[in-house]
Amino acid sequence: MVARYGKAFKDRAVARLLPPENATLDDVAREYGVGVATLERWRSAALAEPTRERAWSAAARLDAVVTTAAMDEASRNAWCRAHGVYPQELAAWRVAATEALAEPEEARASPQQTRQDRRRIKELERKVRRKDKALAETAALLVLSKKSRRSSTRAGTNDRPRRSPQFGP
Q1: Which of the residues in the chain have pLDDT under 70?
Q2: How many CB atoms lie within 10 A of CB 94?
Q3: How far is Cα 159 from Cα 152, in angstroms, rounded to an integer?
Q4: For the segment 70-100, what is each residue's pLDDT rounded down to a tens digit?
Q5: What pLDDT, in 10s, does the model give residues 5-15?
Q6: What's this model's pTM, rounded to 2 decimal places?
Q7: Cα–Cα distance measured from residue 167 to residue 147, given in angstroms and rounded to the nearest whole number
Q8: 3-class DSSP state for residue 135?
Q9: Which residues fall within 8 angstroms of residue 27, CB to CB, at 6 or more apart?
Q10: Residue among 53, 70, 50, 48 at smallest CA distance from 11
């Protein structure tokens, strides 16, 4: 049986093989449980596609931002050429990293907001339970009303009780 791997899985494995990580084939094969020959095939396919289409992992992007942070523009441009990244991309990665790290206090909810959220969640859960019970009761009543209609319809059509065909007429 041939194993099928998703595109995201392949991309993660190949990203470990390509710069900036440059992990060895054996290490990645052990880490992902994929054969070395398969990894070689995936890597050659990734290298055959244009550099623009290769995906960098989040860790690799952060590493690139940290590595190039102290470089002057000429060395940064040389680094970008060597690694197949546009300087604008590198700048966008830097902005994204900065925004992700900026003002973590604003991202957290206040204790008062958290309490209000918990209260609201409990209230909504109570409403859902109440409505589930009402729905179950309504469904039970509907089933009973259908059964009573069926039994009253059968009683009106036959004066004598029905017999099973296996016992004869």
Answers
A1: 1-2, 50-54, 103-108, 154-169
A2: 17
A3: 12
A4: 999 999 999 888 888 889 989 999 998 888 8
A5: 888 888 888 88
A6: 0.38
A7: 26
A8: helix
A9: 16
A10: 53
